[in-house]
Give the backbone structure.
Amino acid sequence: MGLVWLNITTSLDGFVAGPNDDVERLHEWLFAGDIVVRQGGGEFHLRTEADAKNFREMLSRTGAVVMGKRTFDLGSEPWGDDPPFPAPCFVVTHEARPTVKKGKTSFTFVTGGLERAIELAKDAAGAKDVQVMGGASTAQQAISSGLLDEIELHVVPLILGEGKRLFPDGTPVQLEQTQIVPSIGVTHTRYRVVKSS
Amino acid sequence: MGLVWLNITTSLDGFVAGPNDDVERLHEWLFAGDIVVRQGGGEFHLRTEADAKNFREMLSRTGAVVMGKRTFDLGSEPWGDDPPFPAPCFVVTHEARPTVKKGKTSFTFVTGGLERAIELAKDAAGAKDVQVMGGASTAQQAISSGLLDEIELHVVPLILGEGKRLFPDGTPVQLEQTQIVPSIGVTHTRYRVVKSS
């Protein structure tokens, strides 16, 4: 059985989106470089070998993806007919609708909450890992839920001052720092969630 | 003329103190190891050579220290008669009182606000740097003020969920990542503040 891991880009002050859901500067590390990595119909342009290595690892370990409905809505247009996901996606939503198949992936709409979405994603992922990719509300729920095994943050040197916060209020979590990889304009960090049980 | 730099330990979710001003787990990296560094009457116990190198650099570059009144009040007792500061300290306060000399340092109480305290500290520091050491309110003001040249964060793998926040709301700041040094249970990070002028 694989791990459940949150994989998200954040500003130094803990925002995963600026005002009006703006992520352009936060996600610049994925699109502003010369090293091309393709996935589905998507093309990513990384700046450094460290970024590319991290990105390829993400692709190869992902057995299923969990996302919020807002992320799905915001992403649908840019992702197009061949979305850049290496595995089936599970969308946490209040509205039941049939699974959509697109390119090499599929989007299954889960009305039973985040926990149920993670459960279904685990089944789909087999031995690979479940990537919880956000947005902010899904990330906050995931951190609070105790269901994460790992938190991976791509920390961008920006203080945004406003936007969508990554960390939920009121839920302390003990972590173990497992990987810190500096790059240009971003640091890739991984933390294991220390479970008290 | 030296730099003005914020030097502070923060949780991953951006708290520089937990509930009730608790900093025990945040500052553990300074006290839980075997590598002893002395300054004034203070004794620090670092875990790794990376921590010790960072700490010694801090001591040698500091020409003056700026702190808030609450930090001074909370520190006075543990710091004792020979406080662990390598340079004169300037305390931002509302209450005028005479300078206190203690051990190798002194505490000058500045009623003209943070900007005035930094001005006096710059004069005292000469070619060395001015360290703004917090607490939270002073750190927030310093980030908002535009007076910082550098932000140094010692990031501890904890999600506290509540406490005193490091980052002020509503003030975007553009940074350049200049140093990321992972250690055990802490990562030392430095960012240059990109000034638009």
User: Anything to note?
Assistant: Helices of chain A lie at 28-31, 49-61, 69-79, 113-125, 136-145.
